[in-house]
Amino acid sequence: MINILYVEDEESLAMIVSDSLEDHGFEVRHVVNGQQALIFHQKYKPDIVILDVMMPLMDGFTVAKEIRKSDLHTPIIFLTAMTQTEDVVKGFKLGANDYVRKPFKIEELIVRIEASLKKSGQGMSNTKFVIGNYTLDTLKNTLTILDHMEKLSYRESELLKRLIESKDKVLPRDEIIRTYWNNDTYFTGRSLDVFISRIRKYLSLDERIKITNIRGVGYMLSVD
User: Fold this and answer.
1) Which of 51, 107, 209, 222 is 20 to 30 Å from 42 at the Cα level?
2) Residues 192 and 145 grouped into a single domain
3) pLDDT per residue over 170-190, tens digit each?
4) pTM listed for this prediction
């Protein structure tokens, strides 16, 4: 699962963006200022940093500069309402990988995240998986059979990949919830059931493929 360090002092915006990113399968750690960002970056080693520019205590440009002193590889995406060309140039000179202007749509941010991760080389190996007559592309989050292509969410793609990797073996339910939902609550358990139902539907064009619910244990993907 991709771990995002999200630095934003506007709480209402941060809640909306964090929830949306988590719905798309990302793990999000949100902090509200630059000092916290540096602490969390050092402690958790995120896969990508999404960084607001205008913040209290320490602005985003300073945070990026500090991160780049010890970390030249983790992608950094700036989020800002600043539109001056010199601000954009400054951001890139400090080591930013991308720059998203506020207001933005969450779909745009996700595309920018995926592009930055791709350029950094994360998740580039073993991106295509074959199950029955289907091909899963975890880089594009697509599931293809003949001329039919289904666009999956990041979490759906990762969950199906995990099922394929565990083909003919039981994938424990608590492991799935721990990996993709971070905790074991009624809500996440119900969410998992919904995701499994969706994946079964996506795979329905090949009747040989089955996802069996091993009651109280987990799920097993198999091909007759």
Assistant:
1) 107
2) yes
3) 999 888 887 776 555 555 667
4) 0.58
The SS3 of residue 181 is coil
Domain range for 209 is 128-223
CATH of the domain at 188: 1.10.10.10
Q: How far is CA 187 from CA 172, 182, 184, 193, 216, in A?
A: 17, 12, 8, 10, 16
Beta strands in the chain (DSSP E): 3-7, 27-31, 48-52, 76-80, 98-101, 128-131, 134-137, 142-145, 148-151, 171-172, 209-214, 218-223
Hey, what amino acid is at 37?
Answer: A
Q: Are residues 57 and 113 in the same domain?
A: yes
Distance (Å, rounded) from C-alpha 88 to C-alpha 91? 5
pLDDT digits (tens, 9 = 90+) for 74-124: 999 999 887 677 878 888 888 888 989 888 888 889 888 988 887 776 644
List the beta strands (DSSP E) in 111-204.
Answer: 128-131, 134-137, 142-145, 148-151, 171-172
Sign of CA dihedral 164, 166, 170, 172: negative
15 & 107 share domain: yes
Distance between CA atoms of 148 and 162, rounded to whole angstroms? 22
Beta bridge partners of 150: 143
**What residues form DSSP beta bridges with 102?**
none
Asked which of 95, 120, 145 is the last residue of a domain, the reply is: 120
